[in-house]
Design goal:
The chain has 370 residues and is an alpha+beta fold. It is built from twelve helices and eleven strands. The protein starts with a helix and ends in a 12-residue tail after the last helix.
């Protein structure tokens, strides 16, 4: 097992009862190691991590046939603390596995969910965001048109449209395409290689350098009607989107918390004019505000996840948690760079990476505002 996998597994598997300081030491070592490992090595490690149970640990906790959100956001927040790209890479299969678990038919669950329970990492993804300024997940330009067919054939859907920011699209065996059917957003399971599914070149993004994202085009892409998520009745897209909002809020908390703790340690160790810069009011107050922002966003995410677990209507709480976490992540990571001064702008320290990654949260579901 490589050093990368050992470090990350140590953080994710660490028993909280062993002590806070031990956990923090492991997390700091993981951050330092991941920032120094070549990207090619990280890719190879990610493709093999699932054999040690990493993806299952960072993925979905199931209880009584349903996913537990509170458990999930705890794991996602901790996983995103080191590097957001690694977290999103490892959890990309959940973009299709979770909707099937939550809304799929019995036949879909029996056919697809076992693929994600094997020891080998199963690349899979979902495509929601569209390359247009007025993108709205509830009013997609990508369309799904049913074709009339004899009952014996089962019928087909024809998908047309464009998507962007699709993680692992070129590597995935399965893609969940979100499209509008009669004005309602529905999911369609599309195997890799389906005629009409065209995947473009890898995107060049400001952040998430270790996560491969792609544009894709659907040009009269035909899929069986049996591949519609939830069957003929479809799915409750709003609830699935709420789970996504909570997960992204949790990862934003993880990124911001990493930046805060790194800046805090730096301020304690960096001396100027004969004393640590943390003793200066300007720095101390900035760090205190960063800590308050992180905890506020964390509690909002926990509340939204708790309501989802109860089966309550939680759209307001999920939207508020996601929107607040978007702003918080950018504010906290920017202040971490400020605390480090000139050192924060160079790649010798990871805070510049957290700032670039933190800027993306407002766009990961295509909406900068609710």
């Amino acid at each position: 097992m490589s050093e990368t996998r050992l470090a990350i597994l140590a953080v994710l598997r660490h028993d909280p009862l062993h002590g806070y300081e031990i956990k923090k030491t492991l997390e700091r070592e993981c951050i330092d190691l991941c920032s120094s490992i070549p990207l090619a090595t990280l890719y190879n490690d990610l493709n093999n991590m699932n054999q040690e149970g990493l993806v299952k640990k960072a993925g979905i906790k199931v209880e009584s046939g349903r996913a537990r959100s509170v458990y999930g956001i705890t794991e996602r927040g901790r996983f995103a603390l080191g590097d957001l790209s690694i977290a999103m890479h490892a959890m990309a299969p959940g973009l299709i596995a979770f909707p099937i678990l939550e809304a799929g038919t019995d036949e879909q669950k029996a056919e697809y969910l076992p693929l994600f329970c094997d020891l080998e990492f199963k690349p899979a993804t979902a495509a929601l965001i569209e390359p247009r300024y007025d993108f709205d997940p509830n009013e997609l330009a990508t369309t799904a048109t049913p074709l009339p067919a004899p009952p014996a054939s089962g019928g087909e859907y024809v998908l047309n449209g464009q998507k962007c920011y699709v993680p692992l699209a070129a590597e995935s065996d399965l893609l969940l395409i979100w499209a509008a059917e009669d004005g309602a957003t529905q999911g369609f399971i599309v195997p890799q290689g389906t005629p009409g599914l065209e995947i473009g070149e890898r995107e060049k993004n400001m952040g998430l350098k270790a996560l491969a994202t792609y544009e894709l085009v659907l040009n009269d892409c035909r899929v069986p009607q049996a591949n519609k998520l939830g069957g003929q009745a479809g799915c409750d897209f709003g609830r699935i989107l709420n789970y996504s909002r909570v997960a992204l809020a949790a990862m934003a908390v993880g990124v911001a918390n990493a930046a805060y703790e790194y800046a805090l340690e730096y301020a304690k160790e960096r001396h100027a004019f004969g004393e640590p810069i943390a003793s200066r009011q300007a720095i101390a107050f900035m760090l205190a505000e960063m800590a308050m922002e992180v905890d506020a966003a964390r509690l909002m995410a926990w509340e939204a996840a708790w309501k989802l677990d109860r089966g309550d209507e939680a759209t307001k709480e999920c939207c508020l948690a996601k929107t607040y976490a978007d702003d918080m992540a950018l504010t906290v990571t920017d202040r971490a760079v400020q605390v480090l001064g000139g050192h924060g702008y160079i790649r010798d320290h990871p805070v510049e990476m957290w700032l670039r990654n933190g800027r993306g949260f407002a766009t990961f579901d295509g909406m900068a505002m609710v």
